[in-house]
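Can you please make up a whole protein chain along with its backbone structure tokens because I've never seen that pairing?
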Amino acid sequence: MRVLAAMSGGVDSAVAAARAVDAGHDVVGVHLALSAKPGTLRTGARGCCTLEDSNDARRAADILGIPFYVWDFAERFTEEVIDSFVGEYAAGRTPNPCVTCNEKIKFEALLEKAVALGFDAVATGHYARLSLVDGVPELRRSADEGKDQSYVLASLTPEQLRHSLFPLGDSRKSDVRDEAERRGLAVARKPDSHDICFIPDGDTKKFLERRLGERPGDLVDAETGAVLGRHTGVHGFTIGQRKGLGLDHPAADGKPRYVLALEPVSGTVKVGPAERLAVRRIFADRPIWPGERPLDGPTECVIQVRAHGGTADAVAEVVGGEVRIELREPLRGVAPGQVVVLYRPDARGDLVLGSAKIARTGD
């Protein structure tokens, strides 16, 4: 098989490429240049698309003896990921840019170009297990639960999964690092990437203010309607946020307040006690079914609403194209714009049933 190995410059993608070579595939390495100004991104091995990362990827490809190219996806990354990220926050939603990047760049754009060039599949260093059963994809959690990335892959379509390889799905991260060292790959002990690659200093609020400017509004007590202070824009807040609210005075009961709701049209940020963060119902739209199997009636499942968050037992069903989820126990900090992923636990590891974008919640 002709395989295009997406090489980010980290240890995971380097070992994934090496395993694709070992499997007998005809492998070509490619690094995606995602920034028009890569020199402005963080250095020190903490990003995922810096010049440093590109050089690390090239050195790994040289050791593996495979051709290597750099493809410029900066313009598409800006439109599909950065602009979308800013737009979602402006609309009072909480996006996950890594999910968007995987969906729109690493698999839609990259795979589209790879197939056009005659490649059969794209291999990445994601930690997730993928198999084809009678031609139908089955996406499952990885063997290393601490590194599992099935959440950020759950928005891929069946056709994209049919052209994907995740060689690390059955491995633990510590074993991958050891293998990289045995292979002589210089990235063996390179730290993992963290945070958002296009926000070098990690200050999301400041980044959004530079893009959106100030949009002042009121901080309002959700229970009494009293105005508690002012803010510079709803884009500076997320549901469940506690710190940095800028309240003029503490609550009467002395307990901390949390962001409960964002109203971008009026510019209102509603705050209240922690117990009001709890939701029992989630309504999500734009569902994707990686295994081509939409839910058939009410279905017992486990849901996850953050890439590194916990899980919750639930019953989900599709009504008029909308995924409606009833939680067994209340869940806190669920925000519109997040992706909810549905899993079915079984003996072979949690199977991804589908994913959808959270539109609203209920108690």
About this structure: Residues 9 and 56 are 5 Å apart (CA to CA). The chain has eight helices and 17 strands.
